[in-house]
Design brief:
Shape: globular
Largest sheet: none
Structural class: mainly alpha
Radius of gyration: 13 Å
Helix content: 55-70%
Strand content: under 5%
Number of helices: 5
Order of helices and strands: HHHHH
Length: about 90
């Protein structure tokens, strides 16, 4: 018997953000998911990061992912690139 476990990057991001209700975050997830379904050559995290920046160039991912669980990796001053780098690293360890 073979079992395949499919983990959604979107679900992991939601969980890591403590299910943030931030409008920019949720809209970026929606856009990334739609784009990923159209062309899956680009990874979901890159599509999400691009969508987040397009929606609000001044928004900070650190405000969303700077949770108690990740305070040693992400702080309020972390750049969006730093946060995406950490999330990519965390995703690869899943």
């Amino acid at each position: 018997m073979n079992v395949i476990l499919e983990v959604s990057v979107e679900d992991i991001l939601r969980g890591l953000s403590n299910y943030s209700t931030d409008r920019t975050f949720n809209e970026a997830l929606t856009r990334a998911k739609a784009e990923y379904q159209r062309q899956s050559q680009t990874d979901f995290l890159n599509l999400f990061g691009r969508a987040f920046e397009e929606i609000d160039p001044d928004a900070k991912l650190a405000a969303i992912f700077g949770t108690v669980e990740m305070r040693d990796k992400i702080n309020f001053n972390s750049s969006n690139a730093d946060v995406l780098g950490y999330l990519t690293q965390k995703w690869r360890m899943q």
